[in-house]
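This week, study the protein below.
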Amino acid sequence: MQALVIVGHGSHLNPGSSRPTFSHADTIRETGVFDEVREAFWKEEPSFREVLRTLESDEVYVVPLFISEGYFTEQVIPRELRLEGWDVSAWESGDGVSADHATLKASDVEKTIHYCGPAGTHDSMSDVIVRRAESVTGDSEVGDGFGLAIVGHGTERNENSAKAIEYHTDRIRESGRFDEVRALFMDEEPEVDDVTDFFSTTDIVVVPLFIADGFHTQEDIPEDMGLTEDYRRGYDVPAEVDGHRIWYSGAVGTESLMADVLLERAAEAGADVRGLSDGDASRGVADD
């Protein structure tokens, strides 16, 4: 038997924080490729510490629904899962965006744990960001004449936080699909407050690289960009700001295509997902 465990941060303050984790787990559960699918959280129940004890499967694939490598993915989650012999070097990620997977044992359960890198640094996240731009504009060919801003939190406490944003920015820029592509941040330069200063295109799609919608994506960023003076009054999409049209998408982690990223992480760690083809998870389809 094989199980998939999706681990997220969760929140005591924002009840919607865990919604994408449950939603993507439901999508993957419906495909039937795993015998068991579980969710676990740092700030909500079920907890990281208990989740392995709820499983019957011998082979367990753990995929963090986090944006970047760092404190939670490198220290908190392995500690709470009690992964024997864990060391971050097992991921062989020297650049902060290349974590793949490591196979270990949990110290108090007879299970093999395949601990995967965070969803946010997987190459397929670039596709999810572009899909988000397509969704918010209603244009499956969006790109020509548009700028794309990928927004991260940014923090001096974790340099990898910015690396994930810049990694996907570079990949999408190199694809040539959008006229301009830039990485912007809430808490470090260049800041999202000045988004219109960084683009010459009239139309700018803004995609926050956050897992869930919450205070930052629903309140801080819209107000910082000038979409509204008070988030409680709402804002238009697109909204006119300093002669530009801002197409603000909300958190990328709510995009249904995220389920495929989680499946790809598990498959690359050895999970048997035969019967699924690209895009099947987000469509909730499994072959007979």
Notes: The longest helix spans residues 159-175. Residues 2-121+255-269 form a domain with the Rossmann fold fold (CATH 3.40.50.1400). DSSP finds eight helices and ten strands in the chain.
